[in-house]
Amino acid sequence: MRSVRTRKKRLWKSEIAAMKEKPKLTKLPQHVAIIMDGNGRWAKERGLPRLAGHRAGTENIRPVLEACVEYEVKILTLWAFSTENWRRPEKEVRGLMRLLRETIKRELQELHEQGVQLRHTGRLDRLSPSLQKQVREAIELTKDNDRIILNVAFDYGGRAEILAAVRRIIQDGVLPEQLDEALFSQYLYTAGLPDPDLIIRTSGEFRVSNFMIWQGAYAEYYITPTYWPAFDEEELYQALLDYSQRERRFGLTSSQLATQTSLI
Hints:
By secondary structure, the chain is an alpha/beta fold.
């Protein structure tokens, strides 16, 4: 019995040592965006209704947000509801709207006290008037906070965003010769925010799914098979570690990057 306990004790010590010896993150993304996928499958595997998976997903936002603060990430974008999600069963859509309302009511004051600035990316006009009011009030309350930006993409789709931008550009009478990438970006839902450096997709799906198709042009992607409700600080660390080991060239060669770095 004593030898078994000794082996267990040594194992625990080795695990603790391994945790302390995690490789350092040599560079960190300023803006992390997450496609929160897999709530329904997480629930199904546990014999639970889909809405239970969505509820577990909303409860996972706080610990991931806090981990991002610890890693000094400045902006966290979470894709919570797509323009295509309206096609889901009416009961599920109603449940998701109720979850948004409940989450804002439960979390808003504490997020505000912790210096979190809330932003919304997507359409508001298709939400109920009371929910629109709740979202706008949350944005207004936290607008001056600067510890981290939590940008919630709700009723968001990349193609719809680009179409909306083009319509506004036409309405404003912008001439073709005036239009460039910087000006176009000002007409997107994410105007004022830098493009994401790292896009994480949970649940193992290898597709963009109409998410930030303009902004994500040069983002690094990290795919994990873990469903969103089970995505934790360790998973986030692995994504950040993978990012820190990549070379972002933005169309240049490695030698060009090395030359630029040596001149800094």
